[in-house]
């Protein structure tokens, strides 16, 4: 599904990723954990195509195609989705208008006609009900005045509607209370399927209690320094990252 080979990235002459290698298989949920400053969010941004990051070497292959040769919108059309740690507010852009524009952009890329308004409304309402999103939220400008939990639920709603093949969740648990964490996690788990993979970036085991990973990777100083099963996250919760900082040196 996704294969990263020898990825070297810097920003403003500050080297962040140092020859990172990572493989996420079809249908797999892989978690990345690590201390602050290890490069976790940088990795998510580079996969999605955020500007300002300079790729010095390496490849990011999605189904064998190097996404580094694609623009951000082309990556999205190819099936990449990034859920941000801090979703942006977009004043003046209605939530429903935004969602419909996203769906139709994907449909046009696939050579399909635009979704009809009745079908769109049914699709959004069904997904919103599962995520316990109030209908009033759908009538407001995108993310404007939303709580942290509401913003994260809105991103999972976008993911459910777009049905991407590779989903990157960048610290989705940040700022969520217990109830919001449960709702968001249930939305993610409902999308787990063969043909769709997830890269879950987090500091804490608590998210992985809800979104149980197949694989856990420890990242430090721009490298993957250890890989294991879900029990590795429990080990990190108890012992911290001190041992892995030295391994990356």
UniProtKB/TrEMBL annotation:
The keyword ATP-binding applies. It comes from Methylobacterium thuringiense. Coiled coil: none annotated. Gene3D superfamilies: P-loop containing nucleotide triphosphate hydrolases. The keyword Membrane does not apply. InterPro entries: AAA+_ATPase, ABC_transporter-like_ATP-bd, ABC_transporter-like_CS, FeS-cluster_ATPase_SufC, P-loop_NTPase. The gene is sufC. Pfam families: ABC_tran. Keywords: ATP-binding, Nucleotide-binding. This is ATP-dependent transporter SufC. Belongs to the ABC transporter superfamily. Ycf16 family. It comes from the Bacteria. Residues 2-246 form the ABC transporter domain. SMART domains: AAA (SM00382). PROSITE patterns: ABC_TRANSPORTER_1, ABC_TRANSPORTER_2.
């Amino acid at each position: 599904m996704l294969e990263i080979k020898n990825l070297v990235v810097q920003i403003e002459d500050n080297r962040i990723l140092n020859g990172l290698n990572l493989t996420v298989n079809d249908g797999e949920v892989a978690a990345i954990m690590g201390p602050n400053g290890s490069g976790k969010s940088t990795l998510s941004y580079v996969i999605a195509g955020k500007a300002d990051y300079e790729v010095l070497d390496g490849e990011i292959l999605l189904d064998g195609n190097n996404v580094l040769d694609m623009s951000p919108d082309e990556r999205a059309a190819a099936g990449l989705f990034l859920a941000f740690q801090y979703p942006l507010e977009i004043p003046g852009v209605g939530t429903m208008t935004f969602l419909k524009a996203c769906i139709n952009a994907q449909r046009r890329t696939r050579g399909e006609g635009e979704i009809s308004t009745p079908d769109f409304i049914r699709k959004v309402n069904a997904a919103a009900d599962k995520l316990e999103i109030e209908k009033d939220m759908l009538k407001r400008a995108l993310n404007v005045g939303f709580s942290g939990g509401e913003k994260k639920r809105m991103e999972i709603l976008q993911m459910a509607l777009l049905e991407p093949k590779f989903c990157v969740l960048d610290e989705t648990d940040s700022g969520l209370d217990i109830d919001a964490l449960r709702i968001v996690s249930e939305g993610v788990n409902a999308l787990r399927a063969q043909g769709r993979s997830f890269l879950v970036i987090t500091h804490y085991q608590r998210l992985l209690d809800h979104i149980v990973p197949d694989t856990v990777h420890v990242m430090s100083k721009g490298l993957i320094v250890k890989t294991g099963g879900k029990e590795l996250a429990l080990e990190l919760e108890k012992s911290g990252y001190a041992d892995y900082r030295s391994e990356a040196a």
